[in-house]
Amino acid sequence: MGELVRLSVEHGVGVITVQNPPVNALSPGVPEGILQGLEQFVSDHAVGAIVLIGGGRTFIAGADIKEFGKITSGQKRRGPGLTTVIQGLETSQKPTVAAIHGHAFGGGLETAQGCHYRVALRSAQVGQPEVKLGIIPGAHGTQRLPRLAGVKKALEMCAFGNPVSAAEACESGIIDRVVDGVGYDDLLAGAVAFATEMVAKGGPHPKASEQDQKLGTPEEAAPLCEAARALVRKKRRGHMAPLKAIDAVAAAVSLPFPEGVKREAEIFRECLFSTQSKALIHAFFAERQVRKVPDIPKGFPARDVRSAAVLGAGTMGGGIAMSYANAGIPVRLKEVTQEALDRGVAIIRKNYERSLKRGRFTREYVEQRVALITPQTGWDGFDEADIIVEAVFENMALKKEVFHQIDGIARPGAVLATNTSTLNIDEIASVTSRPEDVIGHHFFSPANVMRLLEIVRGAKTSKEVVATSMALARSLKKVGVLVGNCHGFVGNRMFHPYRREAQFLAEEGAEPSRVDRVLYEFGAAMGPMAVGDLAGLDVGMRVRKEAPHLYPPGTRRPLAEDALCEMGRYGQKTGAGWYRYGPDRTRHEDPAVDELLKRIAAEHGIEQRQISDDEILDRVVYALVNEGARILEEGYALRSCDIDIIYLYGYGFPAHRGGPMFYADTVGLDKVLERVEEFRGQHGHWWRPAPLLKQLAAQRSTFKDWDQSR
Ligand code: 3H9
Prior knowledge:
It is a single chain. Among the domains are: 5-132 and 143-153 and 160-208, 2-enoyl-CoA Hydratase, Chain A, domain 1 (Alpha-Beta Complex); 308-483, 3-Layer(aba) Sandwich (Rossmann fold); 488-604, CATH 1.10.1040.10. 50% of the residues lie in helices and 11% in strands. It has an eight-stranded mixed beta sheet with strand order 12-11-10-13-14-15-16-17, sandwiched between helices. Helix 28 (669-683) crosses helix 29 (691-698). The protein is globular. The structure holds (S)-3-Hydroxyhexanoyl-CoA (3H9). (S)-3-Hydroxyhexanoyl-CoA binds next to strand 5 and helix 4.
């Protein structure tokens, strides 16, 4: 049985403890170990009941996700494994009890559903998160869960994948008792006591597969399934697995259990072999991979961040202060004038009130968070802060002036972070006496909501400050991605060609709304024109003015947005940009924009023509990919998966495509290159293929392989 499963006997109860840290995934050997333990205890006369528990900090977090890749690449056959174990637990002559702490997720919850009873610590969570990996529960979860919790709850859990608390699980019948206590020992004692009670009570012990009372009829289930499908289409647009999970739950109602599990197995397999599942599994591991910095080993000393100070109470500064407050870190928020400060604080209040109204936070939570933010116009307390974050206007001279001031005030050892989205960190650091403490913390707007934090390492930034920033990102519940110091870093550097191509397409005759529609249908949260209007077209115009090197002489330059700005059309904030906006920000196409585009084309000799949806998609997405490849070979991103995470969490790239680099891998880099070469033939300079793209395409390799080879 090896080290993966340990057996012991406590007060006449056989205890099977899974020991597969860190999360007790059901890796090869674990199901077999549970089964052997079960068989041993069933035939042991000194044992009256059996408890299944997870060692360490959690129950079982599910199947071992790494194994899925082996199955789909043909390296491994999917064996009977887990479902045999679950069957064994359910048909055991002696009562079986799952004791849950931490997480019972996916195959973990399915294993628990095989047990006759389930008990859990109050802090535990249970869930069927498989859809987040592009699959559905594959060990009878879609069949047993509706029998335990009812169809509505099962639909919610299987189609959206969100966890539920022990209390909620108890209320809905998924678990039988909440055990008081805090850790493994309390849970084990509670589970053993519960198991002893069940022995005394006597059988037959309930089998979830045989409980049909909560299922109802197919007619009753139909509207619930339809409502769930409608919600999925809205909230998980383009995702296949959630709709398939609903089909599987519906099968639990319309088919007898043995038929239902067969249907589930067919759907599971279909999902497992889909590109969407590969993309979402890639994203799962990528999110964890980005925490790893090759030259900074795990456990590298990091500084404590217990207090923060933010300079600038504008949109970004306010959102950053909220992020700190939400993490329970007291934060000072400074503005130059009382008026600007009041404005910033009012926006923070408004944001919290909105969350309160939506039921995201309680009143008590909001008051506690607001109390952690100290608005001020002076420098009080900045000399004690563990981190100072600058979030003033995006202007190098101003940032340098501010950093010079901060340098004079901050205590030794404080981290000095700039929220610049494009500017040179080294130049900013050069005005301080401690460039090793200076780092970029590029938050994304709205900073209190968006999960990405680009952490920009300057030439002299110390490893300790990098380690501190990576750890801090997790405390702030952000996904921190370490990037190098180039213009626009990774995200905005790639975004520039993406939006440039979108403008070129519009100038060549693709209606702006169609460009947006193509990207929206691809799965993006918003198309490039709508994003431009939201962020403000003046932002791009300023970047083009302040960074003339972006458009060397003789290269084609996008003209439309500068012309829109000249007309006072800055986007949503001025009521018009690429679109015209109604009072409630409803978007309308505007013939004036079409006229403008025609005029630009005529004045600058740009041929207007019919442009296909395919061309629109390939030009904007491959512009991202080509720039991403350059960034990789120049070393400004550590791995292609880092770029993917930046685009998934910072730019609304569709999760089920896995990020731009993974998407290119799925298309095939030879095909991507072919298209890039074709665009080069038509449009010249901007489409010179990145050498890395050429190299990998020639080798019939992928960005993912390239990551792994380093
Ligand atoms: C499934 O069960 C299908 C079934 O229906 C059965 C079909 C037959 N496998 O997230 P963390 C690794 S599908 C392999 O940082 P936390 C993770 O990569 C599965 N590895 O910890 C990381 O490795 P590293 C359904 C896994 O405390 C390390 O563990 N289950 C798995 O922040 C620590 O992870 C899920 O989808 C796994 N299942 O969060 C649950 N899980 O250190 C997925 C984690 O090398 N997991 N790892 O980077 C989670 O949601 C979180 O890990 C959890 C803990 C909330 C459990």
